[in-house]
Amino acid sequence: MRTARNMFIVNLAVSDALVCCVGTPLTLMELLTKHWPLPDWPSLCKACGAIQAISIFVSTISITAIALDRYQLIVYPTRPSLQTMGALVTMLCIWVTAFCLASPLYIFRSLKTHNIGLKDMDSLSFCIEDWPIAKGRAIYSLFSLILQYLLPVLVVVVAHVQIHRRLRGRRRTTKKTPAILIAIAVTYVISWLPLNVFNLVADFSTEPILEEKSMTITYAICHMFGMSSAVSNPLLYGWLNDNFRKEFEEILCCCKKRQITKDSRIKNRKMDTELTALAQIEHTVTANTKTSQCSQIF
């Protein structure tokens, strides 16, 4: 199981865990509060935006790396495959690239505090993006659209089409294989398309495209589609993977066997304790009988 592709899947799992644990709660917090409810630390405001972007970039680049690794392994089986050290170096490059792509959100994100002088609230803070140029946010959205969506979609679709063509004439290929390839490509396209289109339209529009409430609901729905990839990825890359499923079943079977063995050991110990107790009782009764017999003789 310690192959390059499986290491990329582990990398994908880590990034999806970050999306679930950091990205989704922070987005929900921003939608519900409209202001910055966390401590007034500028570094925390910067880090929250950057971590969300990093987790998404790592997830999408890992999916692209898995598609390329499958492509190389199936279309060019005679070429040397990626080894463990090469996979580790690739994973390091993925994280470094994600940090670089998300760095503008750390650099140009700032915490603005306004003194309002209310009885229960002295000040109100907002974590906003303060770009140094006009349309800076729109340029970054276009940049993200190309690198986080269009380029990965192109690579994943082309790689899976070539893999399908290569496997089409093989006897061992089941009907499930092309279905999984199609599901991976379609799921990725559907998951990230709404959010990228929404960000692009909203950032390039000179006037608000919707009312505030409708805008919030639309953004929440688009964001939900994007975050749904963290739910579909474990199914597509984990459960539908025969090797992973066999390993999971073996682990579960081993756990069941261990539990059965543990229960049998406890049962055997209990029986031994009961037998020992019975033997002691028997010995006591025998001794008392002998004593009574001796007392009768004397």
Please provide the ordered H/E string of secondary-structure elements: HHHEEHHHHH
Structural class comes to mainly alpha
Low-confidence stretches: 285-298
What is the helix fraction of residues, given as a range? Answer: over 70%
Shape: elongated
Q: CATH homologous superfamily?
A: Rhodopsin 7-helix transmembrane proteins
The radius of gyration is 31 Å
What does the secondary structure layout of this molecule look like, with pairings?
Layout: H1 4-33, H2 42-75, H3 84-107, E1 109-115, E2 123-129, H4 136-167, H5 176-204, H6 212-227, H7 229-239, H8 242-297
Describe this structure in words.
The chain crosses the membrane at residues 7-29, 49-68, 88-108, 138-159, 179-197, 217-240. Residues 1-237 form the G-protein coupled receptors family 1 profile domain. Belongs to the G-protein coupled receptor 1 family. This is Putative neuropeptide Y receptor 11. The chain has one domain: Up-down Bundle (Rhopdopsin 7-helix transmembrane proteins), CATH 1.20.1070. Helix 1 runs antiparallel to helix 7 and helix 2 (42-75) packs parallel to helix 4. The chain is mainly alpha-helical and 298 residues long. It is built from 8 helices and 2 strands, in the order αααββααααα.
